[in-house]
Every structure is written in C-alpha cells, then in structure tokens.
Write a structure and sequence with these properties.
Strand order of the largest sheet of chain B: 6-7-8-3-9-10-12-11
Order of helices and strands of chain B: EEEHEEHEHHHHEHEHEEHHHEEH
Largest sheet of chain B: 8 strands, mixed
Shape of chain A: globular
Radius of gyration of chain A: 22 Å
Strand content of chain B: 15-25%
Number of helices of chain B: 12
Strand order of the largest sheet of chain A: 6-7-8-3-9-10-12-11
Distance between the termini of chain A: 45 Å
Largest interface: A-B, 46 and 46 residues
Oligomer: heterodimer
C-alpha cells in the first residue's frame, strides 16, 4: 500500500476584485473553490481543465507561490500553509516546479551552469567544484552534455530549454515535482521526447508528479490518476483508465468528445458543448456546470453537488449520481439524448 | 470524387528573409493547390514555413526583411505576385480572406465589432448603402452562431469571450463572400470545447457557402477531423501531400509517420510514446540533400548528396523521399518502411 505524500483539504483561493473610484473590493474571483485530493508516493496525478478552471492556481498554492485563502496542504506529514517563509524554503527542496514556458522561465542573462547551481547554493551545497560536478551530472541525465553548461538560454531550442527546466527541478533531489503544462509550448515530436524523459526520470528517482495540462491525450499518457477541474472545483477524479473508459461527469464526457482525434476513420460522438465557461467572479448557483450541461435537472440550479466517491476510487460531483436519484440516471440520460 | 476546378495554385513558391546572417529560405520551392469548395490542411511544426506560405499568398510578407524570390501564386489563373499593391487590396479580404490565431490581438480594441465588421464592406462594396451593409453584417454574425447579434455590433472586443471573438473574426472574413478563406491556426489559442465549436462552424460554413478553406495547423487531430486533403510541411518544404484518409492510414514520408505516431491518443494509452530524435534544423543550415535526413532512421548516402523531389506515389499522394523514387526500386525492398 502506497502512502499519501500530499494531502490537500478544502483548498481555496479567492482573488479580490477591486472596482469603483475608491478601489473597494467589489467581489472575489473564486479561482479555486474547495478542492481536496491526495497524491500517493511515486504516482502521477494529472489535473486537467480548460483555461480559468484553477488548475495552475492550485499548483502554485502547493508550493506557496500563492498563499491559499483557506484549507490545508499536508506534505509528508507537515502542514505547509502555516510554515514561516524560512521553513517553507527548506521544504521546497522536496517540492519543485517545472513551468510551462521554457522561454520565460530561464533567466536570459545567466549561463545554464548558474541557473542549475542556484538551487544548490540556496539549499547549502558547499564547494563550487561539487556544484559543478552535479550540474554536469544532471545535464547528462536530461539528455544534454557538460559543454552546454557554459551556454545561455537563447542558444537552446524549446525542447532543450524544457530539459534544462526539468534539470533545475531535479537539482535538489525532490520528492514531488509539480509540472504546470510542461509540454504545451512544444511541438509534437519534441513533446513526445520530453514526456518520455519525464517518465524515465520518475522511475530513476522515484518521483511523484502532479502534472497539470489541458491536453487530455498527454495527460492520459502520463498519469496514474486524473482529476478534472471546472470553474475552481474538482468535478471528477479517478484512475486514469477508468476516467477515459467511463467518464461520469457530463463535463468530462464533453471534454473527451471535444478532443480532435488524429484518425479520419474514427467515428466520433458529435456532441459539441454549447456556450462558454461562466465568469468565476459570479459562478452559477448550484452546480457550476448547469448552464452548459445536457442533463440539467431542477436540483442542479439550486444545490451544489457533493463531491463524493461513487465507485471504488472514482469521485464525482454531480447530482446524477446521488443515491436517491440513482435509479433515474439511465432514464435521465436516455431522455436527454432523445 | 468529382473534378472541381482549381482555384488557388501555388507553384514553386520561394519566400526568403534577408537578415544579417544572410538569406534564410523560409518557404523553399513550395507547390500546392486548392480546389473550389475544398478544405485543405497545411500541417507542420513551428518554423516549417506554413504561416509564411499563407502570408505570401495574401501578399502580407513583411518586406524588408522578407521577399518572395520566385514562383507563382495563381488565383483563378491570375498570378497574384504580378499584381500591384492597389490590385492586391481589391483581392485581399474580398476574394481571399484570412483569419488569424489570436482572436484577442487581431481585433482592434478601440472600435466596436460593428465598426470592424463593416469596414471591409465599405472598402470593397462601394455601391452598397450603409443600411445594406449593416444588415449584411448582422446576418453574418447570426450565421456564425452569435446570438443577440444586433447588440454585439455595438460591443467592443473585450466584452466577448475568446470563442466569440474567433466567431466574429470568421464572420468578418466571410462578409465579402471570399472564394478562399485562409485560417492560420484558428483554434490554437482556444480551449478544447471551444475549439470543437469553431471547427464545427468552419465545416458548416464550408458546406453552406462553398468557400474553399486553407487550414493551417500543427494539430494532426484538427486536420483529421476537418480537412479533405493535407499538405505536410517540414523545414520550408512540402514533404508529403494527399487525401486525409490516405495520409493517416498510410503515411509515406518517415517524418509524417513519426509525427502521427508521436501524438498521444486520447483513445488508448501507450506505454511509451514514439518520438522523433533531434530537433528541426535551423532554416538555411542544410544546403543540400534531404532536410529530414539527420532525424531519419532510413537515411542513406543519397539523402546527404541530392535533393529529393516530390515523387508521385499514387494517383493522389506525393512524397518527398528517395525511398519512393523508382530508381531506388532495386534496394527499396530492404528499406521498405514497415508500419507497426
């Protein structure tokens, strides 16, 4: 039995919105609104959703690049939200982040050696020689070589830069890596290289990943479990294969059918979701998805569906799966389709 | 398939950028054509020259540093490259229209949607009254599926969502009934569910209005779902061309094969993704020979010494690879690419 490395409970992040001439707070963007999940040691948890669903905000709160408004983050038995910044810095040795844009996340004025040895300096690795040795070692691990240490970021291609970003995250020998859209800026052929590298490293260093992405194909490929977010809430979470074979939440179903399949012969379900994601400043009452949901019921506009386990390890927040209305599900669905 | 007239025929197009480091051929002898009412996909990774190709067709290549150094772009048998800027203006937006990747930046934030919708009609249809133009604009907005189109005419771009803005862009492009619509990565900046909406709209409009569409994208999934024919580009060249079903079932060029295999498929989980080793060569670095040779598993001597031409491998499919040269027939057997 693997033990949970990270436990997140009722995490919230509300950004104040200022307005009027006096700049008073007129509302809140509920970027992340009551999200709970846990990550087991050595697994990859994928978090998917469309822009504005709060997936990146969640990732950033875990390393406290953003302070959570409410909720708890327990990492390796320690509560992170209450730590002082000094203590948090020590913890960051174990939680590292890989960012989306390999162009913006490396300092253009620093050589690769400087970029990669910085985490070592911060975390107290003494001796320049030792640091240099480690930099060279990790460059080799991510598929570059020691000569690259003398160069600057602009001398590398996008794929190589992302390898450097990954090497930087690995320098402190972390337990958990949060990768926020690490391959979405890369071309398909390069994307595959980086994904394969990340899988190899996971085995080699026994890493735990939280993989944040919008591409469902990529997420399926790399994840053991997947959580789907919509408008600041986790709407479904399950084993990766189960989620793709039997998506329960109507949003997950719509999301999966929207992905273009690279096969002209493939006969696709043509249901296209109407409308846009509502504003997180003023989310719809009840279930946030009810404005676009093909299975909308009366209760959906009034009550927030509870996020609960409906099958073994399969969590979903949808009124369709309430025990009381369980018998009606099939009827409801059939009705909606006709 | 019925024979449709070729409406746009690009022949041997060469567009170069002249920089401090010398001439960089971004589009390197590119040939392709679009028939009336057809949806043609142009697919390739960043830097393959697909966008510069479309800008060349529109006559929008920034010069300097860019310049079209050779070739022909025949639109209804008329060479666009020989036309004066004044004549091009009559064609651009009227006969050939374009939509861009970023619906956020390609609309002017200071003008209302109505203002921007009617602009091209005011330029191209001088005989129309203001009322007629307004009516047409509202109709177009309805056609692209925007509810309350009268109100949207008075709104500013920031009041609309990304998907709505892209719909406005499409309406704006189609308002003069162009014969060809060039869509440069129209859904790249959008979310998947919005992307599905826009792709569906493009397919519907293509059927309804019979506008030929040149869809430029990096996403093979988008191509498979939307296009009839596809042109695959790599390092400024067309390396494969053919009907969509053939290209996906039986890709011939090693690059196309690798590209299709490296897309993670939502329908199944592979234990390991196929990846193409190495990187796209910088433009201009490979002077002679096949541009893909350094990343190709099948490269042999000839790939380094000679430029492969686009070999016709079947009625409808063409491939730029020596493996399909009839002269290579003798040793083709041991090099035949197995599809696994």
């Amino acid at each position: 039995m693997t033990k949970p490395l990270l436990k997140v409970n009722n995490l919230k992040k509300h950004f104040p919105v200022h307005g009027g001439i006096l700049g008073k707070t007129v509302g809140h963007v509920k970027a992340v609104n009551d999200v709970s999940f846990q990550v087991n040691e050595g697994e990859t948890l994928g978090i998917v959703g469309e822009s504005g669903c709060g997936k990146s905000t969640t990732g950033r709160m875990l390393v406290r690049l953003l302070e959570a408004t409410d909720g708890s983050i327990e990492f390796d038995g320690k509560e992170l939200t209450t730590l002082s910044s000094g203590e948090m810095r020590k913890i960051r040795k174990d939680i590292q982040m890989v960012f989306q844009d390999p162009y913006a996340s490396l300092n253009p004025r620093h050589t690769i050696e400087k970029i990669l040895s910085e985490p070592l300096v911060v975390h107290g690795v003494k001796g320049e020689k030792e640091r240099k040795r480690q930099v060279h070692e990790f460059l080799k691990i991510v598929g570059l070589n020691a000569q690259h240490a003398k160069r600057y970021p602009h001398q590398f291609s996008g794929g190589q830069r992302q390898r450097i970003g990954i090497a930087r995250a690995l320098m402190t020998n972390p337990k958990l890596i949060i990768a926020d859209e690490p391959v979405s800026a890369l071309d398909v052929s390069i994307q595959a290289q980086v994904l394969n590298l990340m899988q190899d490293l996971q085995k080699q260093f026994n890493l735990t990943y939280i993989f944040i992405a919008h591409d469902l194909g990529v997420v399926r490929h790399i994840s053991d479990r997947i959580g789907v977010m919509y408008l600041g809430k986790m709407v479904e979470m399950s084993d990766a294969e189960k989620l793709y074979q039997e998506p329960l939440h109507p949003y997950t179903q719509a999301l999966l059918s929207a992905v273009p399949v690279p096969d002209p012969e493939f006969d696709k379900d043509e249901t296209v979701l109407e409308g846009d994601m509502p504003s997180p400043v003023d989310p719809p009452s009840g279930c946030a998805f009810h404005t676009r949901c093909p299975f909308k019921m009366d209760v959906c506009t009034k009550e927030i569906p509870e996020y609960r386990e409906v099958k073994d390890g399969h969590y979903v927040a949808c009124h369709l799966y309430n025990e009381t209305s369980n018998n009606d599900i099939t009827n409801q669905k059939e009705e909606a389709f006709t | 398939m019925e024979k449709r007239k070729t409406i746009l025929d690009v022949k041997d197009l060469q567009t170069s950028f002249f920089t401090d480091n010398g001439e960089i051929p971004a589009v390197d002898h590119v040939d392709f054509h679009i028939r009336e009412g057809e949806v043609l996909g142009i697919v390739g990774e960043s830097g393959c020259g697909k966008s510069v190709t479309s800008l060349s067709v529109m006559g929008l290549v920034p010069k300097p540093p860019g310049k079209i150094v050779g070739g022909e772009i025949l639109f209804e048998d008329d060479d666009l490259l020989k036309k004066s800027e004044k004549k091009m203006q009559k064609i651009r937006g009227n006969e050939i229209a374009m939509i861009f990747q970023e619906p956020m930046t390609s609309l002017n934030p200071l003008f209302t949607i109505g203002n921007q919708m009617t602009e091209s009609m005011l330029i191209h249809n001088k005989k129309w009254s203001k009322k007629q133009i307004h009516k047409k604009a509202v109709e177009m907005l309805q056609l692209v599926g925007l509810p309350r189109s009268e109100e949207i005419m008075k709104e500013y771009p920031h009041q609309l969502s990304g998907g709505m803005r892209q719909r406005v862009m499409i309406a704006m492009a189609l308002v003069c009934d162009p014969k060809v619509l060039i869509a440069d990565e129209p859904t790249t900046a959008l979310d998947v569910t919005t992307q599905a909406q826009i792709l569906k709209l493009i397919r519907q409009l293509n059927e309804k209005l019979n506008t030929a569409v040149m869809l430029i994208t990096h996403d093979l999934g988008v191509v498979a779902e939307t296009c009839e024919r596809v042109v695959v580009m790599y390092a400024g060249q067309v390396i494969e061309e053919g009907p969509v079903d053939k290209i996906f079932q039986n890709p011939e060029h090693p690059y196309t094969q690798g590209l299709i295999k490296s897309v993670p498929d939502v329908r199944k989980k592979e234990s390991r993704l196929h990846s193409i080793p190495g990187n796209v060569p910088l433009p201009g670095t490979i002077q002679q020979g096949c541009k893909f040779r350094d990343r190709c598993a099948f490269a042999f001597d000839r790939c380094f010494n000679e430029d492969p031409s686009l070999y016709q491998t079947s009625d409808s499919q063409k491939t730029r690879c020596f493996l399909y040269d009839k002269k290579e027939g003798a040793n083709l057997d041991d090099k035949t690419i197995t599809q696994s």
